[in-house]
Amino acid sequence: MKKPKEKWIRFRITTILVFFCLLAFVVAGRAFQLQVLKRDQLCKLAERQYKNKIPLVPKRGTIYSKGYEELAVTVEVDSVYAEPDEIEDPKFAAKRLAPILSVSRKKLEDHFSSSKSFVWLARKVSPSLIERVKSLDIQGIGFVKENRRFYPNAELASHVVGFSGIDGSGLGGIELAQDAQIKGKVEFVRAERDALGKRTLPKDFGFEDSLTGNSIVLTIDKTIQYTAEKELANAVKKSGAKGGTAIVMDPKTGEVLAMANYPQFNPNDLSSSPQIALKNKAIVDTYEPGSTFKVFLLAAALEEGVVKPGDKFNCENGSMEFAGKVIHDTHKHGTLTVREIMKVSSNIGSVKIAAKLGKERYHDYLTSFGFGSPTGIELKGEGSGILRSMKTWSKLELANISFGQGVSVTPLQLATAFSAIANGGYLMKPYLIKDILDKDGKVIKRNQPQIVKKIISGETASKVTEMLRDAVAEGGTGTAAALAGYDVAGKTGTSQKVSGGRGYAGNKHVASFIGFVPARSPELVVLVAIDEPEGIQYGGVVAAPAFKAIAESSLRYLNTPDKNGGEIPAGEAMKVAKAE
């Protein structure tokens, strides 16, 4: 029989052994949890404690014009940073740096006395500023190369090209719309912390290997764009207008050769321009097109066979009561043919043609011409305009829409629809991007002309063209758009702007002219819209001269033969596009 003391000793030994076995099991389990189950998570936490990445602006691809002239490039510039842990005397450093960096001493002292181990002081600054900072030779102040976006042509095509932010992301225009293509891979500087938690930066602080973004080749022709901007600015200033828009398109392909807005902005210095100047009015703003809309009524009525060019209508001597309202013409006219109605831009004649066509067919043609829907251009924020459902149209609304009231369009929509008249009846999708290139300059995507649909026959398009030539000839409303040596087909428009409430602002108008040249072998469609001109507000007086200047200069630049130099036969426009 064992003694009680011996039993107690064995019990204690057994208890201790069980305790240590359990403890070993717990330790082993915890080790398994930390080293196996949570290994990845803890590795990341550990790396976060002693390693850090400082992002740098990636290198964006170049944006070119149609002729491969650079419109947006990336240049290497210097930035200044501080390592507060390394700065021995924060107050002295702040005193020396404040006047150079144009930053308050208090703010710099706060930076230098903070617990942070890395602080940006000035990013993407001039070489002269960098030299001044370097001359101070302050320990803890360092420099690094970063990428900065630069626009060598300043305001030229700024609304199309757009701009980017300090972080390298696109914020407007093609820079924004194609950001995923243009933006390169984000680059980092790696930094590590020592045992005391201080961050140490490598001596060769700079970029890691990165992938440069793709480059974009636009359809914008630099010379035509410059001409459009110059003549638009002249027209706006001469008329005392609020602003304006000009668009030049190739009607055969849908390529946008110029897209200009006034006022402009300099993407290199955004702070110098008001926010409103950054808006691309050519695709965002909508307005009632006025008499330029009569062209599409005429095309629909001719295509449906409800009228012929020689059919006559009584234009009621300039005033007609219709659906309880009085419709007026600018000038008094008696009986006019359809051709004459277009030439003198009679509202009353247009209302009578619309009544014969009917709202169902008229609405169908307007939607076919693209009104009420965005064109799909490669830019953000495009407007759709307003084309109400045909079911809501009253007789009066049908009348108003026949001469361009009660409907709104963007300048690009109107230019695209007009191109369908110019090219023989094909609605083309407008586009701004010709090619996308990889970092080695190899084409990885090439856009081709796209036919959206066939709207009217070539015969109808030719008839409308001849009537639009009359509108620019002697006795028409657009004589100021006539060119020496070239036939012009075009239409004036003068529309009241909708007021903030209901109805129209009596003294605010949009004066416009849109046309194509040469009339029978169109190379260019040109739209000019002037917003709120003062004094004389007619499109034929305010906008037509700018159309003339843009068209004439562009045709000469393109070496387009004049009337004596040979023409492409009417109806052959789409064959040319397909051949290209």
Topology (elements, then pairings):
Elements lengths: L3 H34 L1 H12 E6 L6 E2 L5 E13 L7 H12 L3 H8 L6 E7 L1 H10 L4 E10 L7 H4 L1 E2 L5 E3 H5 L1 H4 L4 E7 L5 E2 L14 E4 L3 H18 L3 E7 L6 E7 L18 H4 L9 H11 L7 E3 L4 E4 L2 E4 L6 E3 H7 L2 H11 L1 H10 L26 H8 L8 H12 L3 E3 L4 E5 L5 E4 L4 E4 L3 H15 L16 E10 L5 E14 L6 E8 L7 H4 L1 H14 L15 H7 L1
Parallel strand pairs: 2-10
Antiparallel strand pairs: 1-8, 2-3, 3-4, 3-5, 6-7, 8-9, 10-18, 11-12, 11-23, 13-16, 14-15, 17-20, 18-19, 21-22, 22-23
Description:
The protein is of the alpha+beta class. It folds into 2 domains: 59-183, Alpha-Beta Complex (Penicillin-binding protein 2a (Domain 2)), CATH 3.90.1310.10; 222-579, DD-peptidase/beta-lactamase superfamily (Beta-lactamase). The strands form 7 sheets. Strands 2, 3, 4, 5, 10, 18 and 19 form a 7-stranded mixed sheet that branches. A hairpin with a 5-residue loop joins strand 21 (489-498) and strand 22 (504-517). The longest helix is centred in the first third of the chain and has 34 residues, at 4-37. Mean pLDDT is 86; it is low at 566-580.
